[in-house]
Amino acid sequence: MYSIQEVSRRTGLSAHTLRYYEKEGLITGVERSPGGFRQYTDEDLESLGLICCLKNTGMSLEEIARFVRLTQEGEHTLRERVALLEAHRGRVIDRMEEMKRHLEKVTWKLNFFSEKLKAYEERKQGQEDKP
Q1: What CA–CA distance (Å, rounded) separates 60 from 68?
Q2: What is the pLDDT of residues 5-26, one digit of tens each?
Q3: What is the DSSP letter of 20?
Q4: How far is CA 21 from CA 29, 67, 70, 111, 123, in A?
Q5: Cα separation, 100 vs 125, whole angstroms
Q6: Average pLDDT of the chain, as a whole number
Q7: Where are the alpha helices (DSSP H) in 24-77?
Q8: Within its chain, how far is the Cα of 70 from the centroid?
Q9: Domain boundary assignment for the chain
Q10: If you classify domain 1-73 with CATH, what class do you get?
């Protein structure tokens, strides 16, 4: 069992975010100690890992909550879960391709300005070498 502070350290999510995710149904069934403190399991950490992955790749919290609900409903929702993940994967691939195009442009500009800087520094050095 892990405390909310330990889970926060392990996941990088704040305690506030963990409580919010629980309130929104993104993570369910978090056990409580006799004193009322949250006690997370390895399974909870695994679920949080998937939630973070989906969120960091652009899935909305609403879609993640829907995926969690479908998972809780059982195997008869497998087709819908697969479709949800396939659609998300397609969006991630599209964004990666877009980012690749942006990276190519940034790299081109970096090379362009690096060459200009090199030429400028050579001119400047040449002027400093003149008596």
Answers
A1: 12
A2: 999 999 999 999 999 999 998 9
A3: H
A4: 12, 13, 16, 44, 58
A5: 37
A6: 93
A7: 42-56, 61-73
A8: 21
A9: 1-73, 75-131
A10: mainly alpha
d(CA 109, CA 114): 8
10 near 45, Cβ under 8 Å? yes
**Phi, psi for residue 130 in degrees, rounded to 5:** -75, 135
**Residue 97: pLDDT over 90:** yes
H or E stretch at 12: none
Instruction: Please classify residue 30 by burial: count the beta carbons closer than 10 Å to its beta carbon, then call 0-12 exposed, 13-18 middle and 19+ buried.
Output: middle
- Partnered with residue 17 across adjacent β-strands are none
Beta bridge partners of 31: 39
CA 46 to chain centre: 15
Residues facing residue 40 across a β-bridge: 2
11 vs 8: CA distance, rounded Å: 5
Kindly report the length of the chain.
Answer: 131
Q: Which residues contact 108 (CB under 8 A, 6 or more apart)?
A: none
